[in-house]
## 1
Amino acid sequence: MSILILPSFGHEIGPLLATTGTPFLGPDLPEARQSYINVDSHLTRGYQALTRLQYDLAASELEIAMSETYNPPAASEAATYLGYIDMRLGKSKEAKRVLTVAIRLDPKNDLAYFFLANEYLLEGDRIHSRNAAGKAISINPNFISAMRMLADEYMNEGKPDKALPYYEKISALLPRSSESLVDLFNAYDSANRLPNARDAALRLIQLEPGYLPNYSRAGNIYLSLGNPKMALEEYDKALAKDPTFQPGYLGRAKAYVALHHFREAKAALRDAERIHQNSLDLEETRRLVRDKEREWMKERVGNRLVYLLVILLLASAYWGIYHARHKREIVKILTSFNRGQEQIYDLGELAKYIVAFYLDVTQSQKGALFLFFRQSNQLRLAYSQYLKNEETFPPLVTGLHVFNWAVHQSRPAIPVSKLEDPNFEEAFPSFKDRLVKEGLTHIIPLLERGVVLGFVAIGNGKRISDEILLPLSSVVGRALESLFLYESSVTDETTGLYNKRFFRQSLQSELRRSDRYRQPCSLITFDLDDFKEINDTYGHPQGDRVLKDVSDLVVSCLRGGVDIAARSGGEEFNIILPASDTERAQKVAERIRNLIRDHAFLGLTRRVTISIGMATYPLHADSETAMIAQADRALYQAKAKGKDIVQTAGEEENLPLKAEILHPETLNIFDPATTLCRPDYFALRLEEELKRATRYQFPCSIVLLGFQSSEKETSFEAIRRFAPFLLESLRKGIDTPSALDREHIAIILPETEKEKAVNMAERTCKLAEGYGVKAGIVQYPRDANNEESLMSKLFEALHEAEKDPTRQVVIWEEKVKM
């Protein structure tokens, strides 16, 4: 038996990748583990193929190793790697079966238990996932990723006391990990163990002295401990590093309030206002200063007569000031909402934004948005936060008194306990009981010109002001109505997918993009087999439900924000796959076909199958019309072959190739020396992603990796050897890596906040241990608002990391500490 060091396929497993749903193999803590690699030849070849991502060859060798070896631990090791391959390929049932075999062969196989826990978690089976993770920890008490999985689950359930032992042990094993220490701090804070939270915050400052939110964490804990002077010191340290750090001024204001220094508190508020005037945190701190000053004045005034005289003298003056400030506050809230929603073009995103905004404004613990669809007379849950069970609110068929109830409403926020109007119960049957069951205490009708658009429901709001909610609800109603009109022009009502007109417009623009970047673009066309029989047998309402379920299954297989799914009419659907060649489109089509065929549709006693035709531009067609025709022709051929198959254009006849097309690996956007993107393509993608981030208000992070030359190899040779491992760790089709020169790799991470980018960079540096890699990070638009400034600051952050031997990853700040 040999001792195997696993730098990339190690004992510790990193976080789940959202794009694949399978674990990324990479060590949290490098360590040795016993292995039968280099002892069993088939196991050795299988593992080597696995490290080269040759899954078919690896599976073949590992299956032979399982069947021929007489050593149960060796067979268990082979089964563990087989289970991992099945997870990577999305074969959930097979992965669980093989991992169970691995555990049966070797009950102390902690890695197999952890893989099994991840698989259960992806399926939503938290009980079995927790049991499997616990078993892995009982076998290996230092299994960091298993401990983090359990701790995160307990925190999500609101049980920080159960999460703390795991976070404490992780922090002890990873003393230089800021991510682990932040988790520990949050757990201490949630469990109200303030002295421990203070110590964790001070350790964070020692670990990352340039990261300003750490000082705010320490200051807030000192305030909670009743030590405002120490809190002031922490806030002053942050402001000494960056005078534009608004949370530092707000913290100073709170500390001065605790010391009863209200003049200094107001001065700190004025400093905060000069930085950013539309902050809800600023408004809350201003109210705190005002309320605490009033309380303090009440305590200081001992003589009631003097107290009454002061109140009478100040009332008239303060009333005008208060009224003016209250008006300004309302205007700020409305302005803030309009700025946030003006770039949102998706109803789901707008629903999410509305709920979050109302929870913030009303200081509520939970909330939901319900939308009324007049065409179908249904009230549907659009989005919710912190509800116990969303299934409490299935689509509700409304009654005939919706308008009668709406025209008599004058209050913007109605307590659920006072919904006694019989018109409401007739309009929305059982809705009140469901609200009570979920602990929602108020509903806020959203009306536009006397028409009910829906409701915002909130629970236990601390700041329910009619003066604020009345104009806010009017603005929200107009925003919803505008988006309804937009979406009704581009979406299909039955399925929620895009309609035929939007599909044709999108196909034209994607083909132009394909020409610009010399990328392929594939089109999938499919329809439901024998759908008329479903309508005739089960009725058209059931047929519509099948179409909606099929649409949801299709969307689950696509890249969000990239691929475009549309219903062209009847039971026919189209899918545009930008930057996808025939091979990738074939995989997507087969995945959709299998998912629909194996799905148990509610109310049907038969299977639903689809026939698919597909074509790729410019391989099979040189125009939008020709591409649609080729995909349709392939669909008819699939029908003729017996249905329930995928047919590619040109497979049944010798079609002339319309244009030369390269596989993605050999497109001129890739550098053949590194297999990463070329710098010119990287610049184009950066420009596109920043425009997209501005439109949809998503963050976009950029990571810059710097490689060092060594006696054994140059930095460029290190980049070439490391590139395949980097590509495996990124989200394919979303993230963009490029070798900018012979020493640097830059990576665009769309829709990624700086904190998640830090986790990715730390993971990558561990994966590249031995290459001397350092990383710098910037985020758009927080750090800069254009490409040139972003790249300049990105190199500044990397240079700072390269100067400091104790740090691998540096986040750019307004003033980099020299």
## 2
Amino acid sequence: MKISAAAGKPADPSILVNVPKLVTAYYTLRPDVSDSGQRVVFGTSGHRGSALDGAFNEWHILAITQAICDYRKLQNIDEPLFLGMDTHALSEPAFASALEVIAANKIEVMLSEGTRYTPTPAVSHAILRHNRGRQTGLADGIVITPSHNPPDDGGFKYDPPHGGPADSHVTSWIESKANEYLRSPMEGIKRMLFAQALRASTTRRYDYLHSYVGDLGSVIDMASIRDTKIALGVDPLGGAGVDYWPIIAERYGLNLTVVNESIDPTFRFMTVDWDGKIRMDPSSPYAMQRLIGLKDKFDIAFASDTDHDRHGIVTKGSGLLPPNHYLSVCIQYLFANRKNWGQDVSVGKTAVSSSLIDRVCARLGRRLYEVPVGFKWFVEGLLVGRLGFGGEESAGCSFLRFDGSVWTTDKDGIIPCLLSAEITARLGRDPGEIYRELTRDLGDPLYERIEAPATLEQKAVLADLSPSDIPITEVAGEKVQQILTTAAGDGNPIGGIKVITKNGWFAARPSGTEDIYKIYAESFLGQDHLGRIEEEAQTIVSDALARSARAAAKN
């Protein structure tokens, strides 16, 4: 993975998105449905793309929203639809398009009161709050966000009544129906003018901010953070939580400084990511350079991405913690300190997260529940309290309230940030120090992720590999213990392969949102061993793709 010379540096004006051009493309370009790249496609987190290349335009949003309205009717979902958006340039026009359709379908919709933007976890929290104790009269939601993706991207995701990301059978139905609308001259799509939609009797306001913030004491020990007066720094990265952090500080009396209050759809205040692009990724040391530079001013500092469903934790001694490091610390701390969580409450992790988590769980005596990539696999477990924690290597997680009941069923970037403050306040040591203690006891793994270009055909081959397609017995000098194509916890396909040895592993899977595949690798034996795993993994994947190409050519 080649690192750009611009990585970690302030964004050059030449790479800033032309917002007027982007929004014009949203309204004027009609997608070509014969082009697979311009159809509605729900990946791991909804439909995403740029208006500039015909992947996220008004037609897409009108079609998807009508499909969601149709789905609600089929499922007898007849209570409010909670609608939120982030600060990306395409979120505002997509919000308008969605509301025009929702209002025309006479669906009660809840818009944010007092602030324009709504974090993903605040929408999940609102859905669950409405639906608590109900079997009928259920609510659901839409969040308009491409998460941490570059400024020219848009995103649109649906949360059913369980409050988390929709399962694949739901998104497949919505995707298929939306593409039907795109192939027709948009027949059957109901729509009214935006001004009328805002005035419609079914359009209402909901105080997402104070509902969410006022409930934080049920999931985080805010009193300890307040009483110790530790200095906290937060960078909202220009995202949907920018209005939330000052209210959190005021409501709970925290010594918290918001280091950047800017909202700018070009995100010109960011330092650029590894490939020279702007991404609001709180897990990237390149994107987080500004907050890392301020680490000595605070006892603990943190950031969240644009829709505030991911976290980044910065400590004085360790700088930015890699996501796997912090997930391990969270699990160790939560399961040692949440006394009302039953002994049968398990730990959820994705198949490509660190194996140090496995060792932490074994020491805690907790069952590990490993799932494919995608937060949707944690939803049911979090909803019923079977999972105390669900986390993925891309810095997304959520966990239960103190009493063991559900908090959110979607990723929440705010509570893990506040948990880092709770850990520091209560233990007198920050999460970086706790992680070093874990590695002294359980081993010190090295973990990397590599990305490589892949065509749609290659991605399909990789997703469909079986153990018989991987004729190996050793990796990096160690005997192969397992070759998995399904997750060990729930048995669902991981969309690729995972090869495990005694002291290391690698996994390879196609991206759900980009034309790349990813290799994840980890070693407990040092950098040389990790390098060997990565090199052999790339050879194994390349050979499998080549064999498939040869077989296809013969047929």
